[in-house]
Amino acid sequence: MNHSIYSADRLTHLKIVMVALGAAIVVAGLALSFRDTSSDGSVHAERIIKAGKPVMETNSVGAVVRWRL
Fold first, then answer.
1. Where are the domains of the chain?
2. 8: how many CB neighbours lie within 10 A of its CB?
3. Which three-class secondary structure state does DSSP give residue 37?
4. Is the separation of the CB atoms in 25 and 19 below 8 Å?
5. Phi-psi region of 44 (alpha: psi -120 to 50; beta: other; left: phi over 0)
């Protein structure tokens, strides 16, 4: 058995291309099926999260250490 792709015959190359094409179709189909669209075909804009002001949170277990460089 030869494991080199260079010396493989035409049927082997065709099998590799078909498996790669099938995998690409499956990935594209899954990506399209996970999209969240409304009934009119537009994508929901409510899922956009905007960053707010930075917040510092502490708890009573540990002390806050601030480093000055």
1. 1-35
2. 14
3. strand
4. no
5. beta
